[in-house]
Amino acid sequence: MLHSSVQAAASAVVEPPWKKRKPNPSPPSFLSLPDVIILNCLARVSKSYYPILSLVSKTFRSLILSIELNHARFHHKTQESLFSICIQLPDRPLPLWFTLWIQPDHIEKKKAKLVQVPSSYAPQEPLLVCTVGSDIYAFSQRYPPSLFMLVRNKESAIWRNDAPKMTVARVNPAACVLHGKIYVMGGCKENESPESWGEVFDTKTRTWEPLPDPGAELRFSSVIRKIQITQGKLYVRSNEEKDSVYDPETRKWDATAKAPVDAVRCMVRNIYYACRAKSFIWYDEECNVWKQVKGLSSLNKNYRSMIEAVEYCGKLLIIWYKFVQPRRREKTICCALVALEKRQNGQVWGKVEWSNGVLTVPSSYFFLRSSVILT
Q1: Using 50, 70 and 90 to split pLDDT, how confident is the model at 96?
Q2: Is 166:149 a contact under the CB 8 Å cutoff?
Q3: How far apart are CA 47 and CA 92, in angstroms?
Q4: What is this structure's pTM?
Q5: Neighbours of 178 (CB within 10 A)
Q6: Could you tell me the domains of the chain?
Q7: The pLDDT value given to residue 10
Q8: Could you give the angle at the alpha carbon of 17 between the alpha carbons of 13 and 18, nearest 5°?
Q9: Per residue, what are the HEC states of the chain?
Q10: Quick one: average pLDDT of 41-46?
Q11: What is the pLDDT of residues 228-276, one digit of tens each?
Protein backbone atom coordinates (compact mmCIF):
# COMPACT_ATOMS: atom_id res chain seq x y z
CA MET A 1 0.00 0.00 0.00
CA LEU A 2 2.75 2.38 1.01
CA HIS A 3 4.79 1.37 -2.03
CA SER A 4 1.96 2.10 -4.44
CA SER A 5 1.35 5.48 -2.85
CA VAL A 6 4.98 6.43 -3.26
CA GLN A 7 4.88 5.45 -6.95
CA ALA A 8 1.74 7.51 -7.48
CA ALA A 9 3.32 10.51 -5.82
CA ALA A 10 6.45 10.19 -7.88
CA SER A 11 4.51 10.01 -11.12
CA ALA A 12 2.56 13.10 -10.11
CA VAL A 13 5.75 15.16 -9.76
CA VAL A 14 5.94 17.71 -12.55
CA GLU A 15 9.22 17.74 -14.49
CA PRO A 16 11.25 20.97 -14.34
CA PRO A 17 10.65 23.31 -17.30
CA TRP A 18 14.24 23.05 -18.49
CA LYS A 19 13.77 19.31 -19.01
CA LYS A 20 10.69 19.83 -21.14
CA ARG A 21 12.32 22.51 -23.29
CA LYS A 22 13.45 21.35 -26.72
CA PRO A 23 16.83 22.55 -27.94
CA ASN A 24 16.65 25.56 -30.21
CA PRO A 25 17.06 24.67 -33.90
CA SER A 26 20.29 25.86 -35.49
CA PRO A 27 19.90 29.15 -37.37
CA PRO A 28 19.30 28.74 -41.10
CA SER A 29 22.49 28.68 -43.19
CA PHE A 30 23.07 30.83 -46.25
CA LEU A 31 23.96 27.62 -48.06
CA SER A 32 20.47 26.27 -47.38
CA LEU A 33 19.07 28.80 -49.85
CA PRO A 34 18.31 27.71 -53.42
CA ASP A 35 21.22 28.02 -55.84
CA VAL A 36 19.41 30.65 -57.90
CA ILE A 37 19.24 32.99 -54.89
CA ILE A 38 22.91 32.45 -54.06
CA LEU A 39 23.80 33.15 -57.70
CA ASN A 40 21.85 36.40 -57.62
CA CYS A 41 23.73 37.43 -54.48
CA LEU A 42 27.14 36.50 -55.93
CA ALA A 43 26.33 38.40 -59.14
CA ARG A 44 26.13 41.62 -57.12
CA VAL A 45 29.56 41.09 -55.52
CA SER A 46 32.75 42.33 -57.20
CA LYS A 47 34.76 39.56 -58.84
CA SER A 48 37.77 40.67 -56.78
CA TYR A 49 36.15 38.85 -53.82
CA TYR A 50 35.62 35.57 -55.68
CA PRO A 51 38.98 33.96 -54.77
CA ILE A 52 38.12 34.40 -51.07
CA LEU A 53 34.46 33.39 -51.42
CA SER A 54 35.42 30.22 -53.30
CA LEU A 55 37.08 28.99 -50.09
CA VAL A 56 33.80 29.16 -48.11
CA SER A 57 32.46 25.84 -49.39
CA LYS A 58 32.37 23.48 -52.35
CA THR A 59 28.96 24.90 -53.24
CA PHE A 60 30.33 28.44 -53.45
CA ARG A 61 33.29 27.34 -55.56
CA SER A 62 31.05 25.37 -57.92
CA LEU A 63 28.67 28.31 -58.39
CA ILE A 64 31.52 30.81 -58.87
CA LEU A 65 32.96 28.62 -61.65
CA SER A 66 29.58 28.10 -63.32
CA ILE A 67 28.37 29.66 -66.56
CA GLU A 68 25.12 30.48 -64.75
CA LEU A 69 26.94 33.12 -62.70
CA ASN A 70 28.06 34.85 -65.91
CA HIS A 71 24.44 34.86 -67.06
CA ALA A 72 23.34 36.34 -63.72
CA ARG A 73 25.96 39.10 -63.91
CA PHE A 74 24.79 39.91 -67.44
CA HIS A 75 21.14 40.03 -66.30
CA HIS A 76 21.93 42.32 -63.34
CA LYS A 77 24.30 44.49 -65.44
CA THR A 78 27.16 43.92 -62.98
CA GLN A 79 29.74 42.72 -65.50
CA GLU A 80 33.31 43.91 -65.00
CA SER A 81 36.28 44.38 -67.32
CA LEU A 82 38.69 41.46 -67.23
CA PHE A 83 42.28 41.94 -68.45
CA SER A 84 44.24 38.85 -69.49
CA ILE A 85 47.57 38.11 -71.13
CA CYS A 86 48.76 35.09 -73.09
CA ILE A 87 52.41 34.09 -72.71
CA GLN A 88 54.63 31.23 -73.82
CA LEU A 89 56.94 29.75 -71.19
CA PRO A 90 60.05 27.80 -72.25
CA ASP A 91 59.06 24.66 -70.34
CA ARG A 92 55.44 24.51 -71.53
CA PRO A 93 54.33 23.12 -74.91
CA LEU A 94 51.20 25.31 -75.07
CA PRO A 95 50.65 29.02 -74.37
CA LEU A 96 49.21 29.96 -70.98
CA TRP A 97 46.62 32.58 -70.09
CA PHE A 98 46.83 34.74 -66.96
CA THR A 99 44.18 37.13 -65.68
CA LEU A 100 44.81 40.30 -63.68
CA TRP A 101 43.33 40.04 -60.18
CA ILE A 102 43.09 43.36 -58.35
CA GLN A 103 42.53 43.42 -54.60
CA PRO A 104 39.12 44.69 -53.39
CA ASP A 105 38.47 48.43 -53.17
CA HIS A 106 38.42 48.62 -49.38
CA ILE A 107 42.12 47.73 -49.14
CA GLU A 108 44.13 50.93 -48.66
CA LYS A 109 47.32 49.96 -50.49
CA LYS A 110 45.85 48.08 -53.38
CA LYS A 111 47.93 45.50 -55.23
CA ALA A 112 47.38 43.22 -58.19
CA LYS A 113 48.75 39.96 -59.51
CA LEU A 114 48.40 37.76 -62.57
CA VAL A 115 46.54 34.52 -61.82
CA GLN A 116 46.79 31.54 -64.14
CA VAL A 117 43.58 30.52 -65.90
CA PRO A 118 41.48 28.61 -64.91
CA SER A 119 40.87 29.97 -61.42
CA SER A 120 37.99 31.13 -59.25
CA TYR A 121 38.57 34.60 -60.68
CA ALA A 122 38.57 33.50 -64.34
CA PRO A 123 37.13 29.99 -64.91
CA GLN A 124 38.29 29.79 -68.53
CA GLU A 125 40.37 31.48 -71.20
CA PRO A 126 38.83 34.70 -72.54
CA LEU A 127 37.05 34.59 -75.88
CA LEU A 128 38.28 36.69 -78.79
CA VAL A 129 35.25 38.86 -79.60
CA CYS A 130 34.24 41.02 -82.58
CA THR A 131 31.13 43.20 -82.79
CA VAL A 132 29.15 43.79 -85.97
CA GLY A 133 25.95 45.78 -85.53
CA SER A 134 23.82 44.22 -82.81
CA ASP A 135 25.66 40.87 -82.91
CA ILE A 136 28.79 39.76 -81.09
CA TYR A 137 30.97 37.03 -82.60
CA ALA A 138 33.57 35.07 -80.64
CA PHE A 139 36.43 32.63 -81.25
CA SER A 140 38.02 30.15 -78.89
CA GLN A 141 41.43 30.91 -77.41
CA ARG A 142 41.73 27.55 -75.69
CA TYR A 143 42.82 24.12 -76.86
CA PRO A 144 41.88 21.99 -78.75
CA PRO A 145 41.39 23.90 -82.02
CA SER A 146 37.78 24.49 -83.03
CA LEU A 147 35.83 25.10 -86.23
CA PHE A 148 33.08 27.00 -84.41
CA MET A 149 32.44 30.70 -84.37
CA LEU A 150 30.09 31.63 -81.53
CA VAL A 151 27.50 34.39 -81.87
CA ARG A 152 25.00 36.15 -79.62
CA ASN A 153 22.91 39.28 -79.64
CA LYS A 154 24.02 42.19 -77.46
CA GLU A 155 20.80 41.80 -75.43
CA SER A 156 21.44 38.11 -74.68
CA ALA A 157 24.02 36.31 -72.57
CA ILE A 158 23.60 32.96 -74.36
CA TRP A 159 26.20 32.05 -76.97
CA ARG A 160 25.02 30.06 -80.00
CA ASN A 161 27.10 27.89 -82.32
CA ASP A 162 24.68 28.00 -85.25
CA ALA A 163 26.91 30.30 -87.34
CA PRO A 164 28.61 28.75 -90.39
CA LYS A 165 31.81 26.93 -89.42
CA MET A 166 35.26 28.11 -90.42
CA THR A 167 37.04 26.15 -93.12
CA VAL A 168 39.75 24.96 -90.70
CA ALA A 169 39.93 24.45 -86.95
CA ARG A 170 41.71 27.28 -85.14
CA VAL A 171 42.92 28.16 -81.67
CA ASN A 172 44.17 31.59 -80.58
CA PRO A 173 43.49 33.16 -83.99
CA ALA A 174 43.58 36.90 -84.60
CA ALA A 175 40.45 38.65 -85.84
CA CYS A 176 39.15 42.12 -86.72
CA VAL A 177 36.12 43.77 -88.34
CA LEU A 178 36.25 45.93 -91.47
CA HIS A 179 33.16 47.07 -93.42
CA GLY A 180 30.92 44.49 -91.78
CA LYS A 181 33.26 41.59 -92.54
CA ILE A 182 35.23 39.54 -90.00
CA TYR A 183 38.82 38.74 -90.97
CA VAL A 184 40.35 35.75 -89.17
CA MET A 185 44.03 34.81 -89.45
CA GLY A 186 46.39 32.21 -87.99
CA GLY A 187 45.72 29.76 -85.21
CA CYS A 188 45.70 26.73 -87.52
CA LYS A 189 48.08 23.83 -87.88
CA GLU A 190 51.22 24.28 -89.94
CA ASN A 191 50.31 21.34 -92.21
CA GLU A 192 46.99 22.94 -93.29
CA SER A 193 46.77 24.22 -96.86
CA PRO A 194 48.27 27.71 -97.34
CA GLU A 195 44.90 29.08 -98.49
CA SER A 196 43.44 28.29 -95.07
CA TRP A 197 45.79 30.53 -93.08
CA GLY A 198 43.35 33.43 -93.38
CA GLU A 199 39.66 33.73 -94.23
CA VAL A 200 36.90 36.34 -94.14
CA PHE A 201 33.27 36.02 -93.03
CA ASP A 202 30.60 38.17 -94.67
CA THR A 203 27.98 38.80 -91.96
CA LYS A 204 25.34 39.69 -94.55
CA THR A 205 25.64 36.63 -96.76
CA ARG A 206 26.82 34.42 -93.85
CA THR A 207 29.57 32.86 -95.96
CA TRP A 208 33.30 32.25 -95.48
CA GLU A 209 35.85 33.02 -98.19
CA PRO A 210 39.57 32.15 -98.03
CA LEU A 211 42.14 34.93 -98.19
CA PRO A 212 45.06 34.75 -100.63
CA ASP A 213 48.12 32.92 -99.35
CA PRO A 214 50.53 35.52 -97.86
CA GLY A 215 53.52 33.29 -98.61
CA ALA A 216 55.72 31.22 -96.34
CA GLU A 217 57.57 34.22 -94.85
CA LEU A 218 54.38 36.02 -93.82
CA ARG A 219 52.35 32.95 -92.86
CA PHE A 220 53.20 33.33 -89.16
CA SER A 221 53.21 30.09 -87.19
CA SER A 222 53.18 31.68 -83.73
CA VAL A 223 50.24 33.45 -82.08
CA ILE A 224 49.53 36.76 -83.82
CA ARG A 225 49.69 39.67 -81.41
CA LYS A 226 46.98 41.84 -82.98
CA ILE A 227 45.51 43.16 -86.22
CA GLN A 228 45.39 46.94 -86.60
CA ILE A 229 43.27 48.71 -89.21
CA THR A 230 44.80 51.82 -90.79
CA GLN A 231 43.40 53.54 -93.88
CA GLY A 232 41.44 50.46 -94.91
CA LYS A 233 44.41 48.09 -94.65
CA LEU A 234 44.98 45.28 -92.15
CA TYR A 235 48.35 45.41 -90.36
CA VAL A 236 49.18 42.04 -88.83
CA ARG A 237 51.44 42.54 -85.79
CA SER A 238 53.26 39.27 -85.24
CA ASN A 239 55.56 37.91 -82.55
CA GLU A 240 58.15 37.08 -85.20
CA GLU A 241 60.81 39.08 -87.05
CA LYS A 242 58.40 40.54 -89.60
CA ASP A 243 54.95 42.09 -89.74
CA SER A 244 52.60 42.05 -92.72
CA VAL A 245 49.86 44.17 -94.25
CA TYR A 246 46.83 43.01 -96.27
CA ASP A 247 44.89 45.26 -98.66
CA PRO A 248 41.29 43.98 -99.08
CA GLU A 249 40.84 46.14 -102.20
CA THR A 250 43.72 44.62 -104.16
CA ARG A 251 43.72 41.31 -102.21
CA LYS A 252 47.52 41.54 -101.89
CA TRP A 253 49.96 40.96 -99.03
CA ASP A 254 53.16 42.86 -98.31
CA ALA A 255 55.79 42.89 -95.59
CA THR A 256 55.79 45.99 -93.39
CA ALA A 257 58.04 47.54 -90.78
CA LYS A 258 57.75 46.27 -87.24
CA ALA A 259 55.97 48.54 -84.79
CA PRO A 260 58.43 50.49 -82.56
CA VAL A 261 59.50 48.45 -79.54
CA ASP A 262 60.41 51.45 -77.42
CA ALA A 263 56.81 52.69 -77.11
CA VAL A 264 53.27 51.31 -77.06
CA ARG A 265 50.16 53.26 -77.95
CA CYS A 266 46.49 53.04 -77.13
CA MET A 267 43.37 55.21 -77.06
CA VAL A 268 41.64 56.10 -73.79
CA ARG A 269 38.40 58.08 -74.01
CA ASN A 270 39.13 59.26 -77.57
CA ILE A 271 42.68 60.46 -76.77
CA TYR A 272 45.78 58.67 -78.07
CA TYR A 273 48.53 57.96 -75.52
CA ALA A 274 52.06 56.68 -76.04
CA CYS A 275 53.94 55.01 -73.19
CA ARG A 276 57.70 55.13 -73.60
CA ALA A 277 60.67 53.98 -71.54
CA LYS A 278 60.72 57.03 -69.27
CA SER A 279 57.78 59.20 -70.31
CA PHE A 280 54.06 59.31 -71.10
CA ILE A 281 52.74 61.52 -73.89
CA TRP A 282 49.33 62.26 -75.41
CA TYR A 283 48.31 63.50 -78.83
CA ASP A 284 46.64 66.90 -79.02
CA GLU A 285 44.56 66.78 -82.23
CA GLU A 286 43.82 70.50 -82.13
CA CYS A 287 47.51 71.42 -82.14
CA ASN A 288 48.63 68.33 -84.08
CA VAL A 289 51.42 67.67 -81.57
CA TRP A 290 52.38 65.17 -78.86
CA LYS A 291 52.47 66.57 -75.31
CA GLN A 292 53.72 65.35 -71.93
CA VAL A 293 51.26 63.79 -69.46
CA LYS A 294 51.69 65.65 -66.16
CA GLY A 295 51.85 64.12 -62.67
CA LEU A 296 53.58 60.83 -63.47
CA SER A 297 57.11 61.60 -62.30
CA SER A 298 57.02 58.65 -59.88
CA LEU A 299 56.54 56.24 -62.77
CA ASN A 300 59.17 57.93 -64.92
CA LYS A 301 62.05 57.51 -62.44
CA ASN A 302 63.07 54.07 -63.67
CA TYR A 303 63.56 52.74 -67.18
CA ARG A 304 60.74 50.53 -68.44
CA SER A 305 60.83 47.86 -71.15
CA MET A 306 57.29 48.32 -72.42
CA ILE A 307 55.05 45.36 -73.22
CA GLU A 308 51.52 46.67 -73.63
CA ALA A 309 49.11 49.52 -72.90
CA VAL A 310 45.33 49.18 -72.97
CA GLU A 311 42.21 51.04 -71.89
CA TYR A 312 40.85 49.44 -68.74
CA CYS A 313 37.69 50.77 -67.05
CA GLY A 314 38.22 54.16 -68.68
CA LYS A 315 41.80 54.33 -67.39
CA LEU A 316 45.25 53.55 -68.77
CA LEU A 317 46.68 50.16 -67.84
CA ILE A 318 50.36 49.79 -68.70
CA ILE A 319 52.45 46.61 -68.61
CA TRP A 320 56.22 46.42 -68.69
CA TYR A 321 58.98 44.14 -67.45
CA LYS A 322 62.22 44.46 -65.52
CA PHE A 323 64.99 41.96 -64.90
CA VAL A 324 65.28 40.24 -61.55
CA GLN A 325 68.75 41.01 -60.28
CA PRO A 326 71.50 39.95 -60.09
CA ARG A 327 71.62 37.01 -62.54
CA ARG A 328 68.93 38.32 -64.88
CA ARG A 329 67.57 34.82 -65.45
CA GLU A 330 64.07 35.98 -64.61
CA LYS A 331 61.86 38.93 -65.42
CA THR A 332 59.15 40.55 -63.36
CA ILE A 333 56.08 41.65 -65.28
CA CYS A 334 54.80 44.91 -63.76
CA CYS A 335 51.50 46.74 -64.08
CA ALA A 336 50.22 50.19 -63.21
CA LEU A 337 46.73 51.66 -63.45
CA VAL A 338 46.65 55.38 -64.27
CA ALA A 339 43.58 57.62 -64.03
CA LEU A 340 43.65 60.44 -66.59
CA GLU A 341 42.06 63.89 -66.56
CA LYS A 342 42.09 66.60 -69.22
CA ARG A 343 41.88 69.94 -67.43
CA GLN A 344 40.54 73.30 -68.55
CA ASN A 345 44.01 74.63 -69.35
CA GLY A 346 44.38 71.92 -71.97
CA GLN A 347 46.85 69.80 -70.01
CA VAL A 348 46.37 66.09 -69.31
CA TRP A 349 47.22 64.92 -65.81
CA GLY A 350 47.65 61.35 -64.65
CA LYS A 351 47.31 59.78 -61.21
CA VAL A 352 48.78 56.35 -60.41
CA GLU A 353 46.13 54.35 -58.54
CA TRP A 354 48.42 51.36 -57.99
CA SER A 355 51.66 49.96 -59.38
CA ASN A 356 53.48 46.71 -58.58
CA GLY A 357 55.03 43.54 -59.96
CA VAL A 358 52.35 41.00 -60.89
CA LEU A 359 54.23 37.91 -62.13
CA THR A 360 57.80 36.56 -62.27
CA VAL A 361 58.68 34.52 -65.36
CA PRO A 362 61.84 33.07 -66.96
CA SER A 363 63.70 35.69 -68.98
CA SER A 364 63.20 33.60 -72.15
CA TYR A 365 59.40 33.84 -72.01
CA PHE A 366 57.39 35.34 -74.89
CA PHE A 367 54.49 37.77 -74.54
CA LEU A 368 51.93 36.76 -77.16
CA ARG A 369 48.84 38.96 -76.74
CA SER A 370 46.45 40.64 -74.33
CA SER A 371 42.68 40.78 -74.02
CA VAL A 372 40.07 42.95 -72.28
CA ILE A 373 36.49 41.63 -72.12
CA LEU A 374 33.37 42.13 -70.01
CA THR A 375 32.43 39.21 -67.79
Answers
A1: very high
A2: yes
A3: 29
A4: 0.85
A5: 15
A6: 1-79 (no CATH), 83-115+260-365 (no CATH), 127-259 (2.120.10.80)
A7: 47
A8: 120
A9: CHHHHHHHHHHHCCCCHHHHCCCCCCCCCHHHCCHHHHHHHHHCCCHHHHHHHCCCCHHHHHHHCCHHHHHHHHHCCCCCEEEEEEEECCCCCCCEEEEEEECCCCCCCCCEEEEECCCCCCCCCCCEEEEECCEEEEECCCCCCECCCEEEECCCCCCECCCCCCCCCECCCEEEEECCEEEEECCCCCCCCHHHCEEEEECCCCEEEECCCCCCCCCCCCCCCEEEEECCEEEEECCCCCEEEEECCCCEEEEECCCCCCEEEEEECCEEEEEECCCEEEEECCCCEEEECECCCCCCCCCCEEEEEEEECCEEEEEEEEECCCCCCEEEEEEEEEEEEECCCCCEEEEEEEEEEEEEEECCCEEEEEEEEEC
A10: 93
A11: 999 999 999 988 888 999 999 999 999 998 876 667 889 999 999 998 8
